[in-house]
Structure to design on (105 residues):
């Protein structure tokens, strides 16, 4: 299992199948338990999938000008690529959008 965080979805399901019940016991499913099972079934394909993206072997750069567009890319070593990703600041796009929306209003 790649993502153990999905185990937090199993709350009422554990209570429903407690030890000590006869194997032929019919369970009454509450609305909340049904919802828990639906959520689990809908997310089940992602539980055993490795959703991590691999590191790109190319570096891509773009021009930040509003008048023209320019971009280029170049191949780089995988170790260098991993190191660049490690030092990358997360959330820069969100911060840029927030500052833009505050200027626009």
């Amino acid at each position: 299992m790649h993502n153990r965080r999905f185990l937090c979805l199993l709350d009422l399901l554990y209570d429903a199948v407690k030890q000590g019940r006869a194997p032929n016991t019919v369970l009454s499913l509450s609305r909340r338990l049904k919802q828990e099972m639906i959520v689990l079934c809908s997310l089940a394909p992602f539980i055993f999938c490795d959703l991590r993206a691999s590191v790109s072997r190319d570096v891509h750069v773009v021009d930040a000008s509003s008048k023209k567009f320019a971009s280029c890319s170049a191949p780089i070593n995988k170790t260098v690529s991993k190191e660049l990703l490690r030092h990358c600041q997360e959330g820069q796009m969100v911060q840029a959008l927030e500052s833009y929306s505050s200027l626009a209003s």
Notes: The longest strand covers residues 58-62. Helices lie at 12-16, 31-47, 78-87, 92-104. The mean pLDDT is 78.
